[in-house]
Structure formats: C-alpha cells, structure tokens
C-alpha cells in the first residue's frame, strides 16, 4: 500500500513543486527524504537476521509451554506438529526486539561469506520457478502500466486540447489514488473469500491455486482501463474519460493484480517470501528502465495508441497465463518441492 500510494501521490507533489519552484526542487526534496529514511532505518530498524532462541526465556512463557508439555503427557496421541503449533501460537506477541538488535555494528556470523553468497544467488535460482516468474510478471505488468501513464501524461495533458498546467497534470494522478485504494480494499478480501469458498467445496482441503479465480474481475477492469486510456490518448477524448476510466481503472489493476499474484506465490513458497519480492522487483525495474527508451520514440512515430497496446500485451499476457497456472500449479509445486532453496529462509 505504501509503495503504490507513493507512486500515485509523488507526481501530485512533483507537479506543484515544478510549477512553483522549478522541477529541480523536487529532486532536492527526494534527496532529503531519502537521507531521512536512511538514518531512521539505520537507527530505528531492528536487525532481522539477529540470532535468537526459539523460545524466549521468561517465566510466563515457560509456564505456558509447560502446560503444552502437560497436554502431551496427558494425551500421548497428540501429534508433535500440533504441539509445535500450540507453542508457536503462545509465543506470538509475547516478546519484543532486544537492544542488541539495534546496534549499528554486530559481530557477523562465522559463515557470513557463504550466507552472503547464498542470498545473492537465491533470487537467480528462483527465476527458474514458473510460479514465482509468473507472479513477478504480474507485478511488473501493472506497475509498468502506471509508469506508461506517468511517462506520457505530461506530453498529452499539457498539450492541446487539454492545456493542463504542471500542477493540474500532477492532480490528474488522484485518479490512480482512488482506483488504487479500491484495488487495495477489494483484492485481498475477495481472493480470501474465493479461496475459502473453494476450500469448502473441496472438503476443507486448501490449495494455493484456489485464490487465482479472484483475478477474473480485475482482468476485465485492466482491459477496459488500458484500451480506453490508449484510445482516448490517440483520439483526444474528453479528459474525464481518460482520467476516470483510463487512469482510475489502471489504478485498480496496479494494486489488485500484484496483491493476488504475490499472495499466491507466497502461499506456494512461504519460506522464501522475501526472495519472491526480490525477483518481482528486479523484473519490474528492468522492464521499467527499458520503457524509457522505447515509449516516447514509438509514440512520436506511431502515436500513443501503439505503445499503449504494447503495455496491454505485457500486462494481459501474464494474466492469461494464470489459466494454465491454475490447472498445472500443483504439478509445478511438486517439481520444486525438494529444492535446497527453501533452506535460505531459515
């Protein structure tokens, strides 16, 4: 939510600063905020790789754990996995980061070189996992649809017949904010509801692929948003159509589709959820970097509809691949179940 709202609201701020103080001032603001974030992360963020005991040593927790042990003594039939779940449940919320986790420098682990190398190599290995690659493409596609509108909005909206001022071009991004908030509010609950309904029909057995049908309504919203926005650019339709339908529907797509796709990938590979986001971010940023070289030249040669349709293909194509993923996902998970990459999340 924070990431995408930052992308939505950033141009609003940039447009007003550019009009009043010049475009260079926005970069100085960005530099100041980046420095602030760096300092706060350095000082206030606990080290998550900190080595800790599996069960904190406090009397309250030991007593609770002892009760769990007594359960096992009273009923020898209790499975060890059930007892482990009990202990994990009573541990959540009982501790807090220790002061040593906030030290600016900590003694590295003895095997830090191999751990560092392992963490660098892990995302490259995950590119070969079809489910993770598919989820990453469904992050990159919608995010780069937003980038396409950001790259082109100033050229289109500031020219005839719209004649928007720099600040008005910035305010146009509120359409993304509204659409994005709708996507954020609906994607998670809808995918969970769809998965729960499918679980009940499957006699209570949950499969990760059960949340994928939730992408269907967002598929059609994405189609309408990109097509209307691209055709509206090309034929100079009234700006409310371009902003409300083109930008607004794209905002829904930008937040909803990655939410469902990443949730599915994490359901499949929980121990490596962090590495999944690394893969998604790399693909998204590489595609976004390349866009700066071809979008505006293509628009100059063939109009704005042509690059809009390229983005349409790059977004809708991976979403359509969700159909074979839905039917073959379980098989693909079996193929990767014995991978040593799972140990990286421990």
TrEMBL record:
Membrane recorded as keyword: yes
Stretches that traverse the bilayer: 24-45, 126-149, 169-191, 212-233, 239-264, 276-296, 308-329
GO molecular function, one term: transmembrane transporter activity
Keywords: Membrane, Transmembrane, Transmembrane helix
Chief location: membrane
InterPro entries assigned: MFS, MFS_dom, MFS_trans_sf
An example Gene Ontology CC term for this record: plasma membrane
UniProt cross-references to Pfam families, sorted A to Z: MFS_1
Membrane topology field: Multi-pass membrane protein
Subcellular location: Membrane
Domain Major facilitator superfamily (MFS) profile: 1-49
SUPFAM superfamilies found in the cross-reference section: MFS general substrate transporter
Keyword DNA repair: no
Name of the protein described by the UniProt record: Major facilitator superfamily (MFS) profile domain-containing protein
Native source species: Penicillium freii
């Amino acid at each position: 939510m924070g990431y995408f709202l930052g992308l939505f609201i950033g141009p609003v701020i940039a447009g007003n600063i550019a009009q009043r103080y010049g475009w260079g001032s926005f970069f100085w603001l960005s530099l100041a905020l980046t420095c602030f974030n760096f300092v706060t992360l350095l000082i206030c963020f606990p080290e998550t790789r900190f080595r800790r005991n599996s069960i904190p040593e406090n009397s309250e927790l030991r007593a609770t754990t002892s009760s769990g042990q007594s359960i096992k003594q009273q009923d020898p039939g209790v499975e060890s996995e059930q007892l482990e779940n009990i202990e994990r449940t009573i541990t959540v919320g009982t501790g807090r980061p220790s002061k040593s986790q906030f030290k600016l420098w900590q003694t590295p682990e003895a095997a830090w070189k191999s751990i560092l190398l392992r963490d660098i190599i892990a995302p490259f290995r995950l590119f070969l996992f079809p489910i993770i690659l598919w989820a990453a493409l469904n992050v990159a596609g919608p995010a780069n649809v937003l980038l396409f509108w950001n790259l082109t909005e100033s050229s289109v909206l500031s020219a005839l017949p719209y004649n928007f001022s720099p600040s008005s071009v910035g305010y146009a991004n509120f359409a993304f904010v509204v659409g994005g908030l709708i996507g954020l509010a609906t994607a998670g609950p809808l995918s969970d509801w769809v998965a729960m309904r499918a679980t009940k029909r499957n006699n209570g057995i949950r499969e990760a692929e059960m949340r994928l049908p939730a992408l269907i309504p967002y598929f059609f919203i994405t189609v309408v948003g990109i097509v209307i926005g691209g055709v509206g650019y090309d034929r100079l339709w009234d700006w409310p159509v371009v902003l409300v339908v083109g930008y607004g529907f794209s905002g829904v797509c930008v937040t909803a589709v990655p939410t469902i796709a990443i949730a599915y990938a994490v359901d499949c590979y929980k121990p490596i959820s962090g590495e999944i986001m690394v893969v998604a971010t790399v693909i998204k940023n590489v595609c976004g970097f390349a866009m700066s070289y071809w979008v505006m030249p293509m628009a100059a040669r063939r109009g704005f509809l042509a690059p809009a349709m390229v983005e349409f293909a790059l977004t809708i194509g991976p979403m359509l691949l969700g159909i074979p993923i839905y039917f073959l996902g379980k098989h693909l998970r079996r193929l990767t179940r014995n991978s040593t990459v799972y140990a990286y999340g421990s």
